[in-house]
Each structure stands twice: as C-alpha cells, then as structure tokens.
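Annex B, item 7. Sequence and structure tokens for protein A, then protein B.
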Amino acid sequence: MQAILIKRVLRNDELADVEKRYSSGEYDIFTSGDNFLPREIKFTVCSVSLEPEQKKEINYRIFRTVISFGDKLVNGKSVKDWLKVDNTSIWYYHKFRIYFLLRNLFYEIEEIRQISKRYSNVLVYTNNSILKFYKGFNNNVRMEYSGKSAKSLSGLQVVVTYPLFFVSRVIISFFQISKLKRKPHLIIDRIDNHHPIIDISTKKCVIENSYLGYLYSHNDESLGILDEVEIPKFGAKASFSIRKRHFFLKRNLPRLFCEYILFRGLTSRDSLSSFRRLNNKVMHAYSVL
C-alpha cells in the first residue's frame, strides 16, 4: 500500500492526479491542515499529527541546539557576541526565528518519517523547499514541491497601495502632531488588535482595541495614542487593504499615525548615518559567520 501526504494547496492538475491515484485503491491520503484541500473532493482524507510528547521532545531538542549554536566560538568570539550591536543583541531575535523555523521543519520531517515506516512508497506535496537538503528520509519518500506560480496580483497591489497609504498617513500626521506634544502618556495602538467588545457606557458592541478599549473609554486627558499599522510584506503572496479605521476612529483622545515617526527617521541625516554604520557592522558580522 502507498500513501500521499498533502502539506500545501494543490494545483488543479495535482488534485486530479491525487484523485486518480486514490481511485486505483492503492493509496491512502493524509493531510495535516484544514485549508489545503477544497471542500468537495472525491477521496477520503485521514488526519496526521504528532503526539504531545513527540512535539515536546522536538521542541526541547531544537531549542538546546539553537542555544548551543549561539555559544559557538568563531574567531575567538561567540556567535551571539558577533551579533551584538551597541548593546543590542540581534541574536536574540534570530534565535527565536531560527527556533520556530526548525521546530516546524522537524514536525514535518517526523510526520513524513512516521508514514514512510508504514507504507511502501510516500508522495509528499509540500512548500517546504528546505527539505531538499534533508538526507534522513528513506528511499521510499518522494517530494513534490510547488512549481513557480505566476506573479500574484495581490503582491503587485501591495506595492501600489501601501506607498499611497503611507504618504496619506504622513500628510495627515502633520495636522495631528500639535495635539499630542504635551501628552505625558503615549500608548501604541495597533489596528490589528481591534475586535468586537462591549462599550461600558452604551452597553453596545463596538469595534475597539480588545486590550485597551476600556482604558480609552475613560477619556483620560493625559493620554495620547500612537496609531500603528503593521508594514506588509512585499512578495507574491502579500496582501494589504486600506480600511476606514486606518484614518477615522470615533475617539476623543488625540492620535498620531506612526508613519510620521518613521518618515522623520527616514529623512533624518543623523538617523541615516547611524543606520549605515550599524548596517555595515552587522553585514561584517554576517560575512564572518
């Protein structure tokens, strides 16, 4: 008996191939995600997942590996010391990025290994191209990586939309800054944290910051809000949409768009000079490592 493990969204031709293989009666189909397949399919799918103890073992093993890598000496200095710039540890951020990447990678590896022990051949549909460099699979495992897709219109939409959004928020900020200068307390508020909550005074459902909404309802005159919108990633799968809440909120508290702060930094000679100095230092550390 053979198996197919689906770890990504399939193209139409790939989906048709899976249906054909299943209809032969020689294949079992597995997946570990709810969004990889359309609602209506012509085959039965089994869910595959690791036991909590297996995940725990992988978590601890990967974390110990990453921590020890940071202590590794290169030219007499540890990796984490090479990545320290003006008392700021870049390694601190890399450490967690690497940990989560490797943890999820080895989750997938373990799922594939478990299935490969039970079936004569395993076909894996995955987006994880890093698996190309993993040599620990048996010869009965074959990978099907996603092919190069056409350029996404959503990615192009971000390239056009976000600069216009950024410039608009900067221009509006020049009319906001005077109201915020004398506020002793500033709170960073992200539009991504806005969810339905109950307004204390009206008892009606409103869209507000789920953590700070009740604080805002007191209309404390000492408060000012730094309104932040996360900068989107620019790539084929990127997406960004402008919402009314990005510009208009029914609040009595003054707000300042954070794009103004970024704009001031980008147009400051001192900031750019400092950035170039730190960037050169970091690039040198990367070249050594």
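Protein B:
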Amino acid sequence: MKNLLNSLESFLVDRHNLSLKKGLVSILVLISLYVSINLFFSYREFKVIEDLNRKMEIQYLSGSISFFAYSMNIFPWTVFWGTGFLIIFLVYEISFGFFISTLITTTKIPLTQIASAHIFSFRKFILCLFPLLFYRELFKESDSYFVQITYTVLCLGTFFYGIYKYGNEFIEILKEHCSESSKRSFVHWSLPILVLSFYFYTILK
C-alpha cells in the first residue's frame, strides 16, 4: 500500500518542481477522486443512508438540531462538508504559515512559495485518506469487538501516518527550497496545528 501511494504521488507531480499551478491541479485531482470514491461506496448502502437521513430530518423538523448540524449529518452533504473542512484547514495553514514566516525565518518567504510548500506536502495527507474508505468497506459487515478494535487502530494509525507524512514533506521542502533549518521548518509547520488544537480544546473541555 505504501509503494502504491508513493507511486501515485510521484505520478501526479514532482515535489522538486514547486509550481503553484501544478500543486493546485494535483491536489484538486486527489480531492475530486477522494470525493468520488467516497460517494460511490456510500451509495452502495443507499437504504441505510436513507434511513439515517430521515432520522436527521425528523430531528431538524422538531427543532432538536440546527440547520447547520442537519446539513453536516445528511448524505451526501456530509461528504462535501468534510472536504470543505480540509480545504479550509489548508487555507488556514497557508495563511498562518505566511504570518509565522515573517517572524521566525531568516529570509522572508513569498506567500506563493509558502502556499506551494503546504499544498505539495498536504497531498501526502490526502493520499492517506483513501485507505480509510477501503477499511470501512472491509470491516463494515462484522460486529465483532476484535474486528472493530482492529478497524479503529488501522484508521487512527493511517490518519496519524498521514499527518507525519504531511509534516515531514513540508520540512523537507522548506529545507530544500528555502534553506531553512529543520527546527524552524518544524515550528513553521506545527505551530498552526498546535494553536488550532488548543482552540478546540478550550471549546470542548
């Protein structure tokens, strides 16, 4: 699976050529492919989805949930909301990253280069979302406790591996194209995520 993901990533775009246009095209292709596969798998369980949508509609009409919560929990909008959050997160990373670059980098990095670095490296995370769709298909027929634990561990492991690949790729790109040190590159990548995590922690605690 790892070799397949690396081959697909190399086919889309060479990260050594940081063209913003090519980066945008490649990540849009990946996101579109992810959404298409997600919709395909989900529509195979249309009866189950229809029942869930009906339950959510009843809750919305009764006033138990807001329209925002309703739209986030009905198919197919739940898929589009999830994709939208990924795009919003990427824009946030680019914007915050550019702000950080004015504070900690030895030389000012142009916004286009910051955007390219994040887009090219974020593709690694997007690629790691594809196995999650197949895990869901593989384990959906079983109610075994052991199988569900295995499914959860696989999903979490793949998710955090995607985060690691995103961070590692971003650090390598800044080192190679912006002559930044590993420490500065790590701070540049991790600080926006830490700030966002702390924000959600304060809301949810």
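Comment on protein B: The chain has a mean pLDDT of 81.
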